[in-house]
Specification:
Strand content: over 45%
Largest sheet: 7 strands, mixed
Helix content: under 10%
Distance between the termini: 37 Å
Shape: globular
Structural class: mainly beta
Number of strands: 11
Length: 120
């Protein structure tokens, strides 16, 4: 079974930083990304990246503050978050698939269970 396991969430003060990680098992995706869902809100695409880093997309709300990257050798996806704001509080989900392209739409085939980020 495909497994996506996120880690790195936590509580941080506004202006702080966190690094999220997602380890992918039993799968070799060409596209990966991060989504988030705040309480009472719809899922929001945060960032996505294609194999070889040829395409990288960010939501306008995180541009300049978040950086997506991957370590292909370790099958791990990262999201470096800086200058965090209270409105970044959400559960963050890792996504991955082989087809469908690099996108911020929520129609991804594989999802992790999420990691909570709380900014106060």
């Amino acid at each position: 079974d495909v497994q996506l396991v996120e880690s790195g969430g936590g509580s941080v003060q506004a202006g702080g930083s966190l690094r999220l990680s997602c380890v992918v098992s039993n799968y070799s995706p060409r596209y990966m990304g991060w989504f988030r869902r705040a309480p009472g809100m719809e899922r929001e695409g945060v960032a996505s990246i294609s194999d070889g880093d040829q395409n990288i997309y960010y939501a306008n709300s995180v541009k300049g503050r978040f950086t997506i990257s991957n370590d292909k050798g370790k099958n791990t996806l990262f999201l470096d978050m800086k200058n965090l704001k209270v409105e970044d509080t959400a559960t963050y989900y890792c996504v991955a698939e082989r087809y469908g392209g690099c996108k911020l739409l929520p129609d991804w085939r594989n999802w992790g269970r999420g990691t909570q980020v709380t900014v106060s």
